[in-house]
Amino acid sequence: MPIDALIDATVAVAVCLLTANVGSFLNVVAYRVPRGASVAWGGSRCPACEKPIRWHDNVPVVGWLALGGRCRDCDAAIPPRYPLVEAVAGGIGLLATVELLSGGRTWPAGRFGTGRTGADVLLLEVDWQLVLVCVAHVSLLMVLLAWTLFEADRTRIAWGRFLAVAAGLAAVAVVAGGPTTMPGWPAAAAAAVGAGIGGLLGVTAASPWLRQAVVLVGIVLGWQAVVGAGAIMAAVAVGRWAVDGLRGRRCPLEPTCGDLLAAAAVQALAWPFFPT
Q: Comparing C-alpha atoms, which of 203, 192, 190 is closest to residue 230?
């Protein structure tokens, strides 16, 4: 394998491992928040026997597979949701790698795509704007993954907590230069307009979690992207509804935060094909 390809592969694995561990943390957040427990202190424990989980059993995805989906101490079943969330988070890392190592060629409006590619943009002469925009995208997708878990568990998110997350994402987006789809706009104004359009679109959502999530997408990606993501989300929801119908399930045709997460990820890879 050529040395450049080996370095790129190493970077990809490192990023995916990092984001998979973030996914493991999101599992902890989703479990502890509704119980009023601290997400910052205390190691992971088996929900059934309360025994601490050993570090080598806590490796994302691999630990669950090695244990056969059961606790080492009490043999209680560990829901497959945990490795699934970690795998999705690892997939977000793979998306980040594509964005980074392509030099931003997956992004619209000519903001990137003419610069360097490969690990060179990270290791030799760091393209900080490229890195910051990618961090903004990964942060958004991780928050959407968290909101998907909260929605699945019906865990209400206090408005104060939502506003704190929105402010944090806005700060990251502004530092990165504003939403990717709105070059030339003042960063703060672009984020505000995106939030406003996201809020208007969210009014039609039945899910309170989705109403919040659409605003967050607008803050980070801009108003054009939130409209595009909304269209993709609707298509994903219709497809899921049709598949459920074929399986004999009667599910309402209601988009979810998971649909929005999938839509935002698809759009992140296909932005050059959308008008912006």
A: 203
- Residues 56-95 pLDDT 10s: 888 899 999 998 999 998 988 989 999 999 999 999 999 9
Provide Rg for the chain, Cα atoms. Answer: 19
Residues paired with 70 in a beta bridge:
77
Neighbours of 53 (CB within 10 A): 17
- Domain positions in the chain are 146-276
Q: What is the DSSP letter of 34?
A: G
> What is the secondary structure of 147-214 as a DSSP string?
HHHHHHHT----HHHHHHHHHHHHHHHHHTTS-TT-TTS-HHHHHHHHHHHHHHHHTT-S-HHHHHHH
Mean of pLDDT values over 40-52:
80
Residue 273 has what pLDDT?
A: 63
- Which pair of structure tokens corresponds to residue 259? 């649909």
Helix/strand/coil for 52: strand
d(CA 114, CA 274): 19
CB 143 within 8 A of CB 169: yes
- C-alpha torsion sign, points 179, 88, 147, 27: negative
Q: Per this entry, what is the length of the chain?
A: 276
Residue 274's pLDDT is 59
Residue in 94, 141, 97 with CA at minimum distance from that of residue 119: 97
Nearest to 195 by CA among 169, 163, 218, 178: 218
Query: Of 275, 33, 63, 267, nearest to 162 (Cα)?
Result: 33
> How many alpha carbons fall within 13 Å on the CB side of residue 233?
23
- What is the reported pTM? 0.90
List the beta bridge partners of residue 77.
70
